[in-house]
Structures are given as C-alpha cells and as structure tokens.
C-alpha cells in the first residue's frame, strides 16, 4: 500500500490521525461500519441464508452494544461462516507500529517494544499496515490447548539474545490472543477449553492482565471476542466456568433451516453441481428429496439430536447424487446429467457419515436407517407436489405380480421404456406436473419418485438392488408366487 503513510509523523497528518480515530477500539470500528451497512441496506453477510429474521438481529444488537458474544448451535449451522464474515465490517487497512507482534496502535501502544520504539524515534517511528483479513484469528478449542497457545509464554532464547531477565516483557512469545489485538479473535467449541485456560481468558477479558510463569503481565488488549459452542455443553452442568460465561455479553442461538425451501436454497448455493463436462439438470423434486432427508433425520429418534444433523448432509448428498448421475451419463452416452432416485441411493455414504446414532439406531444400522429416510423423504415430496393423486392403478399392477428393476447404471431411455409397461404411471407424472410430455430423463426421474413414494407407504416393496415389486404383506399372502415373476427389467 504505497500511498499510505509510512512514519508516525505522516500518519498524524493523514485521516488516520484524526482525534476520533487515534484511539478508536475495534468494537467501535465494527459498530460504525455496521451502522453504515445498515443504512445502505442489503444483506449483512453474503452467503448466510435463513437467519434474516432470527439470528441476524441478535448479532446486530450484540455488535451495536459492543459485546463479546457466543453463537450457540449444533454443527452445520453456519456459525464459523458468520464469524469469518465479521471481517467485512473492519476497515480495509489498519496502521500499526512496524515490527510489533501485537498490532500496537501508534497512538496507544500496549507492548513494551512499541513504547520504547515510539519513545526513541518519535515522529520517525516506522508504520506498517495490516489488511482486514489478517485481523481475524480463529482457534478450535481442544483440551490440550494451553495458556501458552492462547496468551503466551516466556521464551528463553529471546531472553538470551536480548540480554533480558526472564521476567522482562520483551522475553514473551505472544500467543494467539495478543496477536489478534485490534482485531477479531474467534474460539470454536469454547467448553472444550480446559478450566485453567478459561480462567486465563477471563482475566484478560476482565482485568487485562495474566500471569505467565509466575510473572504478572499487563496486556490491555483491544479485541472483539467471539465464541461458538454446542448448547448441550454450554450449561451450568457443562464445562464452562461461570465467571467467563458471565462476561460474555450476548448469547445468540442459531438453528437449522426452518423450511425445506430455505434448505434447498442453501444446498443450491453450497453444493458443487456445475461440472466441467456434460450439462447438469437437477429436477426440483430430486433436490427436495435430498433436502427432506436431512429434515427427516432431524426428527428421527434413532439419531442423536444433541449432535444434530448438519446442513452439510444435503450438500454432500447432492454432490454425490450428481456424481453418480454423471458416471451413468458418461458410461451410457447420455447427452446430459439428470439425477434420479436411484442416484440418491448411490449417495448412501454421504448420509450415513453425517449421522450419530443412538443405541436403538445402532441396532438397526446406519444404512437401513438411511434407506428409510430416503423413502420417507420421497413420499413427503410426492405428497407435497401431487397431493391426492390416485395411484391405485400402479399399485394394482404390482399386486398382480408386476415387477421392475431400476438400477443407477441404466440409461433414462431404458428406464422410461420399462415404466411404459406400468399402467397409468406415465400419465400420472404428467397429470400432476412432475414431468412434461416428451422429456424422457425428467419423466424417468418422476416415475422413480412415484414408485419410491409407494415404497415409503408400504404399498409396494423395493429391494436393495433396485427391484420394485408387490408389497411385503402381499408376498406373505401369496408365498408360492415368485416376487419378481411376470415383470421386466428396466
């Protein structure tokens, strides 16, 4: 930044040397820039969807009140993204005393190094500039994090090279918090921090001092502190010390998308679906099925609600779904990538990896639960889009012994050909608006949705290999008839 002042004397003559900016704290800086953004209108943080009426007003209140705050929520609720977006409320550049490890303000230094340099050089003190991205420091709290990591420790090598006694402030190797001075320090999973480190953090927040190796160090840091935690851990029975909890000004509760439509919008924004080869066309009802899997999982008693079902689940599932359809399109020579329900089953690994099961769930098994979630999601999607559509003709065909095998490696044209043998199926998907006439890939995907919905209602059955047949109850009534006899493969 060559146009910016490089000495203290020049800095005093610039807009950065104005009296109202010389000692402005980082919280005042965030507040002023936030007020400007609110006056301009538009989203507070780009890319954060679904929090406009719930979470964002609380964050605005916390920043306008100059509070340190904590985001309480389960995994995958955009907590880290929100904290990282705070840097957009900082100035483009900030002046510091050149060589300072703690971003010393030239007009209000906190370190001994900066004070001595300013005393010796005066207006010739060299000035360096820090961009806004470098003013954000993030740390994941784990039980092995120490006071040295967060605040600092005595460095014997510094003492030896400089000829200082160990108690001299110039011998300190600063930790992450002092290096975030005049910036934002974000600490994820706060309750996982050991009690000793929490006390040290509390002392810095409250008194501006800390003892390192028994030596008292005064560090009146200017930091916007932000934390994240799981609500289950952030309680009186959890691992958070009460004095530290009491010093956090605002508690902001985050949440998962409150509607399927919001979830779909988030997944559409985050999932990597634009591939470099063939064009990708994702049916809306497939995107809805993918999103509803997460919604169904969040209400399933066999899945640990304290752990939550991350919004990363539908994002990962969607990426796997498109990849599975991409593989099929390349092997069958199809001109475009159009995902189907079979591709959702091909993304089972993205579902099971995002669920923490309770004891009952462990007995059933993750893959069995994932398949059930897909069926429930498909049924809910079909009901939402088709209402009270009459599927009796389709069910009767399967009850009479009809069967179809629909695998994820079969082309849309072949699958469509198989669906033509099911009375009323093609006309059903056209009549309810799931697929336009003549659109073979979309029609194939819509027909699979109908069949999967019927599986979810236990009107027909589906094997792990993708075979649709009569319902299990019908099989029991007709034990001598082959389950898939008299049908055809698609």
Task: Please explain how this structure is put together.
The protein has helices spanning 8-12, 19-22, 26-40, 55-64, 79-85, 112-121, 147-150, 156-162, 176-179, 195-206, 242-247, 260-270, 284-298, 312-332, 341-345, 348-352, 359-364, 366-386, 392-399, 412-419, 425-431, 440-456, 472-477; strands spanning 69-72, 93-97, 127-131, 136-140, 152-154, 172-174, 183-188, 209-212, 215-218, 223-229, 250-253, 404-405, 460-462, 467-470, 488-489. It has 490 residues and is α/β, with parallel strands linked by helices. It has two domains: 8-253, P-loop containing nucleotide triphosphate hydrolases (Rossmann fold); 260-489, no CATH class. Strands 4-7-10-1-11 form a five-stranded parallel β-sheet. β13 (460-462) and β14 (467-470) form a beta hairpin. α13 (284-298) crosses α18 (366-386) and α18 (366-386) crosses α22 (440-456). It is elongated and about 95 Å long. Mean pLDDT is 88; it is low at 476-490.
Total domain modules: 2
Extended strand count: 15
Shape: elongated
CATH architecture of the largest domain: 3-Layer(aba) Sandwich
CATH class of the largest domain, anyone?
Alpha Beta
Number of helices: 23
In helices, the fraction of residues equals 40-55%
In what range is the share of β-strand residues?
A: 5-15%
Spatial strand sequence of the major β-sheet = 4-7-10-1-11
Q: How far apart, in Å, are the first and last alpha carbons? A: 65 Å
